[in-house]
Amino acid sequence: MRKTLTLLALLNAPLFLIAEPGLNLEARTGITFAQFDEELYYSNDSSLCSLLEWKEQLLYTLALKTSLETDSFYAAGDFSFSSNIISSQMRDSDFLKDGTKFSYTIHDAECYALNASLSAGIKLTRSSFTVIPAVKAEYSYDSFTGGQGRGWKGDPNDLWPNDGLYHPWDSPEAHYLPDGKNHINGVDYALHSVNIFAGLAIRKSFLSGVTVSAQVYVSPFSYHFAEDTHKNSHGGSIYHDVFYGAFDSLEYEASILCPLTQKLVITAGIKGFHILHKKGKAFMWFDEESRDIPLGQKAGIKAIKHTVYTGIKYSL
User: pLDDT tens digit string along 77-103?
Assistant: First the structure.
């Protein structure tokens, strides 16, 4: 009877215990795709005036994570850096109040991104399931340097003959640049985001020792600050967009952990981040004395980012 009970216990025990209490270090590598929509609206109007679509087309990401676990507590710190493998891209569209798009240009861009977070939660374990209600503070930074563009402009401009009227960007009357004499100046963009998240993580461990995990966070508070620099021969015009929000940012992650030894684990997963469509205030930077001057126009922001990663985790 004792031998039977011992055999049953062995059969029901995992091969290696991944969620063993203690200090864990994890190194990750992956690729990131993202898009950030930068919007400007007409004064006292909900009509879209300008849309800049910033695309992080293929970024190489390196991340380090450290976590501390006990039987009832979890805390973690996470840092990542991403840089483009191939050139990213920005698409700039301008609209009339009736929705007619009269300008459409494309700019290649170099970009990089930083992310840092701290989280803590309470572990609730029952059998092979663990639920972790948690809070997280996170800062992220995305920076783009856009080069000179190419595209079509249907707006009146004294650089070439025209009838003084606006025309759709894809009409015969629109002018393509560069044309050998004139060019389209570049644009730079930088976005700072601070989010306070609250959410839930769920883990399920299997007899083989494999653990799958899913977590979802929503932000009761968020702050976003964007800087847009339209370059010209005098250095450029600088615009600032400011956004405050509640429950307008989401973060989620799904992962699998496969043990190699009792202390070494292979990880793989996907992580997503969304800024839901949000409107804020637009300013123009004047100088150090006057600082930001309100434009009297609404700014808009929307973003989506995904990172697919693999890594190795070591328990100290």
Answer: 999 999 998 888 999 999 999 999 999
CB of 241 closer than 8 Å to CB of 301: yes
- Give the Cα separation of 308 and 146 in Å (integer): 25
> Whose CA is closest to 225, among 237, 216, 238?
238
Label residues 19-54 b or e (16+ Cβ within 10 Å = b): beeeebebebebebebbbbbbbbbeeeeebbbbbbb
User: Which is nearest to 52 in space by CA: 7, 110, 108, 92?
Assistant: 92
Cα-Cα-Cα-Cα dihedral sign, residues 95, 96, 99, 103: negative
Instruction: Confirm if 46 and 12 have CB atoms less than 8 A apart.
Output: no
Q: Give the span between the Cα atoms of 13 and 122, in whole angstroms.
A: 24
3-class DSSP assignment, residue 189? strand
Where does residue 304 rank: exposed (0-12), middle (13-18), buried (19+ CB within 10 A)? middle
pLDDT, mean over the chain: 88
Strand, helix or coil at 196?
A: strand
Which residue, 303, 281, 298, is CA-closest to 193? 303
